[in-house]
Predict the 3D structure of the following.
Amino acid sequence: MADAPRGIVDNDPWNVAAMTDRDKEAVIACLLSAEGNTRLSNVSGATDPRVSQIVEQTTVEVSALYMVSYVITGNFDHANAVAIRDPAASDDDEDAVRAVDLRAKHKAVMRRAYAAYRSWYADLRKTGWRMMVALRPDPLVEAGLRWY
């Protein structure tokens, strides 16, 4: 018997698997324009039913980066939640699951995150899709951050 999907949503709602590399690049370019958009997003919360903590609603700019990672991985629930972890938090720190946008250092963290994603995107345009996904599948790591 096959295992059920890990998450609570369709793992590929945008059908990224069927997109051309050029289409994926265009989607990423569009999503990267969301930096600074601090309105609340409808793409929020936990993506895995095993997450027992309440994950606060996040901003469009955080959700846009989550969606970029989804396009890169082809898997909507590539993380447990649409929330950037505080890099200094321990795994058992309840505050660590709050989206970065609820913290005073939000702007600095988002600048770092967007700079890492933009660097990844610039390298993607030089080296090609397959190489970038194979060598650097998670741009957020380059900012010293991680998804929850």
The longest strand covers residues 84-85. Residues 106-127 form the longest helix (22 residues).
